[in-house]
Amino acid sequence: MGTLLKCYKPLFSIRFSSFPNSLRSVQLRTHSFNNPKRRNPIRRCFSSLSPSSQPLINGTTLDKMDGNQQPGSPSSELWLHNTMSKKKELFMPKVEGKVGMYVCGVTAYDLSHIGHARVYVTFDVLYRYLKHLGYEVCYVRNFTDVDDKIIARAKELAEDPISLSRRYCDEFIQDMVHLQCLPPSVEPRVSDHMPHIIDMIKQIVDNGYAYRVEGDVFFSVENFPEYGQLSGRKLEDNRAGERVAVDSRKRNPADFALWKSAKEGEPFWESPWGPGRPGWHIECSAMSAAYLGYSFDIHGGGMDLVFPHHENEIAQSCAACKLSNVSYWIHNGFVTVDSEKMSKSLGNFFTIREVMDLYHPLALRLFLMGTHYRSPINYSDVLLESASERIFYIYQTLHDCENVLSQHDKGLRESIPPETLNVINKFHNDFSTSMSDDLHTPVVLAALSDPLKTINDLLHTRKGKKQAMRIESVAALEKIIRNVLSVLGLMPTSYSEALQQLREMALKRAKLTEDKILQKIEERSEARKNKDYEKSDAIRKDLAVVGIALMDSPDGTSWRPAIPLPLQEQQVAAT
Q1: Residue 4 has pLDDT above 60, yes or no
Q2: Closest CA to 361 of 512, 176, 507
Q3: Residues linked to residue 56 through DSSP beta bridges, in sequence order
Q4: Section 408-422 average pLDDT
């Protein structure tokens, strides 16, 4: 693989092409990573979500809600909070209509936790929304497969470090599929990019920003006066970087390794400084330059990366090329447990797999989107139960729509009543305004309430069933909700399938079978016939305690997942 051009022009001409927005497409893409012989990075940038139609409102289409914007013709302003300036800024890409975005990926040595899930759901929402606005997006998200932590874990398991990391990269990809995170345009791995990393270190050394000590190469922070511009830290306040042992050979404790000399039993690559491997920070600088050039639009990651990782990236990239520039630095808040950051090092984490064993992946995604991305979110059972109950309600409402509309697939008029149009327009405005204001997903999720309630009134109430153009109203409401859910990454492949999965997981959490619940429903019906209301109420309450709600109707009694009664009481007490 050839070395980078000076000043790190992109390694190859980036091509933007369409990538379908479907879970099936994501699954197909992941198969290539299961081939151990595949070592070369992907060299294409996939772009726009597949177009989807939008509801016809009185003969006209509802503006901006269908994903049909022409690539390169953004349809709305977008304001994003820039960590560098510490304020919200109007998003203006360097190349009109095109966006280059780099997000720091996982260090693959274990299963990923929901703190990782928050990072990649956050940037998946941004990726989807940029494409919804009509931008062509090249989204690069790396894998760190060469690192101290990987080597240490591989020694514990007596496994080859690259092989171990490859395995956990594959596991991570499957987690992202379940969370409906679209695959990035490019997913480079450190082990595939050693020539680019070595070439960048050579340029930094040649430009006088780094020094060699025996077989190691360190970046000199004192030679870069702008060091600390992202984090706001003063040089005298800095300490040795994370993932780096204190080393008395360094000129300044805050100097960090660009290249580490080989140690016995560790993987290494040949370099001008002898055999060794790269430091953590240089890897992202080199890979972002390889695919996006020295100057691009968005660099993102978790808030914990502001210092030292992103601070060091800025120093390295500018040292290699003085024209290096990232327009927007975007960081998401932590997931906390008892107000402490969730992390592997603290041992207070829950893996994505552990959570998805009990909760639907899209309930987890909804939970993560229910708090603004820059705010901390506290992990708790009650919030996950709330998200699960909410997404069941959304899918049940849309499933009911689907059943009714399947009986009226012909002869629908294009016009709808003014009341319905008002609900749709308000929802559309709430969506556009909130998403364009630094991705305010909690406001969008709350705004779903009115159109969902309107649908349920039209489908199930006596008054609603008598309304003129009722079916047309239901069709238009269902369509705009579906379009918004698609942009948010919350559309299931099938409403009925998702509802069944949500029921199965509720049963698992309740430690019950459906047959057992049906038996309880029968016992309760018998008690009611015998006017034994005390027993009837006790059965209902026993099921409510474990998160099973009974619903009585003229057609009989059915059940649905609900927040367990003790957690509901906990919620009330907390407020």
Answers
A1: no
A2: 176
A3: 61
A4: 84
- Which residues touch 291 (CB under 8 Å, ≥6 apart)? 10, 11, 14, 45, 102, 138, 140, 186, 188
Distance, in Å, from the CA atom of 446 to the CA atom of 437, rounded to the nearest integer, reads 15
For residues 285 and 49, what is the distance between their CA atoms, to the nearest angstrom? 28
Q: Output phi, psi for 455, to 5 deg.
A: -60, -50
**For residue range 439-470, what is the model confidence (pLDDT) as tens digits?**
999 999 999 999 999 999 999 999 999 999 99
Report the pLDDT value the prediction gives residue 431, as an integer from 0 to 100.
98
DSSP code for 234:
-
- Cα 291 to the center of its chain, rounded Å: 21
Contacts of 270 (CB under 8 A, 6+ apart): none
Selection from 167, 174, 162, 163 nearest residue 30 by Cα:
174
Q: Which two tokens stand for residue 475?
A: 């069709």
- How many other C-beta atoms are found inside a 10 Å radius of the C-beta of residue 330? 23
Sign (positive or negative) of CA dihedral 546, 548, 549, 550: negative
pLDDT at 62: 41
Half-sphere exposure of 289 (CA within 13 A, CB side): 32
* pTM metric for this prediction: 0.87
Beta-carbon count within 10 A of 181 CB: 23
In this structure, which amino acid lies at residue 256?
F
Is residue 34 very low, low, confident or very high in pLDDT (cuts 50, 70, 90)?
very low
What is the chain's mean pLDDT, rounded?
Answer: 87
Nearest-5° Cα angle at 537, 531 to 543: 140
Tell me whether the omega of the peptide bond preceding residue 308 falls within 30 degrees of 0, making it cis: yes
Q: At what angle do helices 470-488 and 449-460 cross, to 10 degrees?
A: 150
Q: Residue 225 is encoded by which pair of tokens?
A: 């006066």
Contact indicator for 93, 291 with CB cutoff of 8 Å: no
**Do 308 and 230 form a contact (C-beta atoms < 8 A)?**
no
